[in-house]
Write a structure and sequence with these properties.
With about 120 residues, this protein is mainly alpha-helical. Helices cover about 50% and strands about 5% of the residues.
């Protein structure tokens, strides 16, 4: 009997702890108006992986900027903005307008691309 209870508890904890990738993507799309799968590709186009460790982005293992694993679930963006879709997009578009001392450059991300990148980042929880 105790073996059944242990197996049941282990199964439930796994189920509760696992995230559904398609549900995360749908939620990120609804939040940002962007496409997470496009955002993953576009992040590489702008060279985000040159400074950040980014799960799912080839070459995304740099350590200049903070790692982006879990960024979708953090309370703050860059330590200065509440983590909201509007603020995430604002940060991606022009980080120096938020924090003039940031090392993150303005790389010329378009508003549409910023939405896609933000959508991808919100899948990283």
């Amino acid at each position: 009997m105790s073996r059944i209870v242990l197996v049941t508890c282990a199964t439930l904890s796994l189920l509760c702890g696992c995230r559904n990738a398609s549900a995360d993507a749908a939620e990120a799309t609804a939040m940002t108006g962007g496409d997470p799968s496009r955002g993953r590709v576009i992040a590489r186009k702008y060279g985000c992986q040159s400074c950040h460790s980014i799960p799912g982005v080839p070459g995304g293992d740099a350590r200049v900027g903070p790692p982006l694993a879990g960024v979708g679930g953090r309370s703050f963006i860059a330590g200065v903005l509440n983590n909201s879709p509007e603020n995430m997009i604002r940060w991606i578009l022009d980080p120096k307008s938020v924090d003039s001392l940031t090392a993150m450059p303005n790389v010329g991300v378009t508003p549409a691309d910023a939405r896609h990148i933000a959508a991808y980042l919100y899948t990283l929880r």
